[in-house]
Amino acid sequence: GAGVSQSPSNKVTEKGKDVELRCDPISGHTALYWYRQSLGQGLEFLIYFQGNSAPDKSGLPSDRFSAERTGGSVSTLTIQRTQQEDSAVYLCASSLRSVQETQYFGPGTRLLVL
Amino acid sequence: DAKTTQPTSMDCAEGRAANLPCNHSTISGNEYVYWYRQIHSQGPQYIIHGLKNNETNEMASLIITEDRKSSTLILPHATLRDTAVYYCIVRSLRDNYGQNFVFGPGTRLSVLP
After folding, report:
1. Smallest Cβ distance to A100: which of B93, B99, B106?
2. Are A38 and A50 in contact (CB under 8 A)?
């Protein structure tokens, strides 16, 4: 079946601009996660949506970062006033119901802020 | 802080078994061992997980020691496409937050022709 998809696959932007990254989870998965991975580093948790519950935003690095999940499916991660240190691969994952299950990752969006 | 230690890198001949070790000496009773891999420029891929019994699926086998302080991921017949960074992760399933999903630096496996 179809896996997690993300778009765009690559994004180059200028410092100060806003960007939106999209994630389509596996159909039927109610839990969705955003992570970022800087060059040569491990995954950094950003935010976690589970069903209709309030999202766990504790990993968002600043108030320039926000995410929403409309209709319990597609999610958008927005970075406002991008900075060069925001350059990273942004990964989305989904699981069937919660963190108690295996997370399946998308291919990521490679963001470069010039 | 990652709860696991893995060798930085390993080589394996194509067609041979690749045995990737992981130490998790502080693992607690409710924590599972998960393995993921990340092929260059792709997102992490789930491989296998287990609690205390050995597990096998179409990709790999997971051998967990009786004291659960270490485990070994076995790729029975490594191919060039198995070249990747392999991550061993310890996770509690009681915690209801996404933050317990912590990747360490992993093992870079190179499958050689």
Report:
1. B93
2. no
Q: Considering only the beta carbons, identify the residue of A48, A91, A108 that sits closest to B97.
A: A48
What pLDDT score does B77 carry?
95
Any bridge partners for residue B87, and if so which? B36
- Separation of alpha carbons B106 and B93, rounded Å: 21
What would the pLDDT profile of A35-58 be if each residue is shown by its tens digit? Answer: 998 877 778 889 989 888 888 888
pLDDT above 60 for B96: no
Backbone φ and ψ of A86, nearest 5° = -80, -10
Q: Rounded to an integer, what distance in angstroms lies between the CA atom of residue A65 and that of residue A93? A: 18
Tens-digit pLDDT profile for residues B23-80? 999 998 888 899 999 988 788 888 999 999 999 999 999 999 999 999 999 999 999 9
Q: Which of B64, B84, B74 is closest to B24 using CA atoms?
A: B64
Calculated CA dihedral for residues B42, A22, B98, B6, nearest 10 degrees: 10
Residue of A nearest to B39 (CA): A107
Task: Give phi and psi for B65, each to the nearest 5.
Answer: -65, 160
At residue B38, φ and ψ (nearest 5 deg) are -135, 110
φ and ψ at B81, to 5 degrees? -70, -10
